[in-house]
Amino acid sequence: MAPQGYGRRQVLFSGSVRVVDFLMLLCFFLVIFFWVAGQASAQPLFSPTQDPMAGSRIFGAKGCSKCHAIEGIGGKVGPDLGKISGRRSFYDLAAAMWNHLPRMGKQMQQMGLGRLQLSPGETGDLIAFLYTLNYFSRPGDSKAGRQLFLKKQCVACHQVGGTGGVIGPSLDNLAQQGSPIFLASAMWNHGPAMAEAMRAKKMERPNFSGAELENLVAYLKSASPGQGTEKLYLLPGRPDEGRELFIRRRCGDCHSIKGLGGKVGGELAERKVQLGLVEFAAGMWNKAPAMLKEMKGRNIPVPQLQAEEMADIVAYLYAVQYFAQPGDARKGEQLAAAKGCLRCHQVDGKGGQIGPNFKKVAGLDQPATIISAMWNHGSTMEQKMREMSLQWPLLKGPEMADLVFFIQTQGRNQ
């Protein structure tokens, strides 16, 4: 039940930040996928109801956790999927599952496990779960945060637990909110005033890395009074409202999304590394002087952002990367030939007849249906490829996007 004043946007948890790492998807339930469903017309979403929480249950029910851990919880045979950095778009994750399928199949056989089958819905939910694993940050180091609080001279202006300066407001209340989103909105809203105060005191404006900000948040929580039994509040955000805010607050005057918008602040949908909440907060703070200068030059009012508005914007920026790679059917057809797919499958009367003709298979017009079919028939394909002395074709995320889009076009042309 959400506390009064925050409506249905805010989710309440009891306990420490560790609980968030385990239950984080409960509060991120469906937010990014409802938004994307109405966006990428060139890459239609395979389902408007992808559920990361359902994906977490599939992860356990299908036995994935026997080999893979999530933040240290689970098996040690495969890599810990909660600690993998880099892009996690739908096609990146689908490519990773495909590339490791032979090795995983062999490991399952050695462990006496049957080859698991995934329906299209289960495939979508499972990839949704894996996609959201790095949305929330890991707990920081409070001792390192205390050193940062002193080193970065935050203590000169702010109090925590009764210790520190009185030029700026006490940070006890920030710590009690328990979410980096509150910190991000506060740092943005008070940034101009803080910059002026630092200039008056001839203090150098500090920058923060994502890890440093995580540690600082951990210190604020540990040093503030009454933190032993506090409730932890999270704001997962809603991408549809974040998109409206992005437009209304004129963020698009400087930043582009998939090529639409300004060029001053760069493209936000094609980042190599996805930004979680803390990384986003750090980026907002570090780039605030340049952004404020640009806004002044363009006569753009500096917006004040409530915590829930900041959460919505973060959710929007996080969501646009899910299908950030538009597929190219022409490249996909070339890949199908180069990777040996057409040795077994037929397209336009050309190719092999061992596997089904893509144009004659119903339901291949959605990405998750195609990925689940590739997964479910992986053992058969692997066997046939061994018989034909063919190597297992490896795919990068963009290549998977092209190949899937090509197969989609075949399904649509039935």
Could you please describe the fold and organization of this structure?
- The N terminus is likely disordered.
- It contains 19 helices and 11 strands.
- The strands form 5 sheets. It has a 3-stranded mixed β-sheet, with no helix packed on it.
- With 414 residues, the protein is mainly alpha-helical.
Q: Summarize the amount of helix as a percent range.
A: 40-55%
Per DSSP E runs of 2 or more residues, the count of β-strands stands at 11
Total number of distinct structural domains: 3
What form results from the Cα inertia axes?
Answer: elongated
Q: How many angstroms separate the termini?
A: 48 Å
How many helix segments? 19
Q: In terms of per-residue confidence, which ranges show pLDDT below 50 for 5 or more consecutive residues?
A: 1-49, 228-235
Helix and strand succession?
A: EHHHEEHHHHEEHHHHEHEEEHHHHEEHHH
Q: What average pLDDT do the residues reach?
A: 75
- Largest sheet data: 3 strands, mixed
Provide the descriptors you would attach to this structure in a database record.
19 helices; 414 residues; three-stranded mixed sheet; two-stranded antiparallel ribbon; 3 domains; disordered N terminus; elongated; mainly alpha
Summarize the structure.
With 414 residues, the protein is mainly α. The protein contains 19 helices and 11 strands. It has 3 domains: 7-134, no CATH class; 142-319, no CATH class; 329-412.
